[in-house]
Write a structure and sequence with these properties.
Strand content: 25-35%
Radius of gyration: 22 Å
Order of helices and strands: EHHEEEEHEE
Distance between the termini: 35 Å
Helix content: 25-40%
Structural class: alpha/beta
Number of helices: 3
Largest sheet: 5 strands, mixed
Strand order of the largest sheet: 5-4-3-7-6
Length: 156
């Protein structure tokens, strides 16, 4: 059972590039490390060989996970979404009424969330509170630290 994962075109390109890098250069480097470790003699007591084989397993797991994610990925099409409401890939400018600070968030799928870049998941408490809002509305988000009230200042 595969659930779709909705990603932006840019994120899909990033993941495809990372996957190609791992498959080409990552596997090549790993094969070289294993060959080098194997050259050190007795494999039964060769910690370097064991470490390289374990690292190879982790590399293959990462490749497998990326392939799975990309196989389920669907590009988000925002062309049919209302321009006056916040939706996935909207940039929402809000005023936190608890501390009077202004923030800009981009609403994204959980797989793309990155708070340092201002990208918050639509499944997070703040993301859920902002979905579907319009400019001028006030919303509340229940977060672990309590309730945050936001006034929506702008939507792009």
């Amino acid at each position: 059972m595969s659930n779709f994962v909705y990603l932006s075109k840019e994120r899909i390109r990033e993941l495809e590039k990372e996957l190609a890098e791992l498959k080409n250069n990552g596997r090549k480097k790993m094969a070289e490390r294993i060959a080098e470790a194997r050259a050190h003699g007795d494999l039964s007591e060769n910690a370097e060989y064991d470490a390289a084989k374990e690292e190879q397993g982790l590399l293959e797991l990462k490749i497998s996970k990326l392939e799975d994610l990309l196989s389920r990925a669907r590009i988000i099409d925002t062309s049919n979404m209302p321009k006056d409401q916040a939706h996935i890939l909207s940039k929402v400018k809000v005023k936190n009424l608890n501390n009077n600070k202004i923030y800009e968030y981009i609403l994204v799928s959980p797989e793309e969330a990155d708070l340092e870049k201002g990208k918050i998941s639509i499944t997070s408490p703040v993301g859920q509170a902002l979905m579907g809002v319009k400019v001028g509305q006030t919303v509340e988000a229940k977060v672990p630290a309590g309730i945050i009230k936001f006034e929506v200042l702008g939507i792009e």
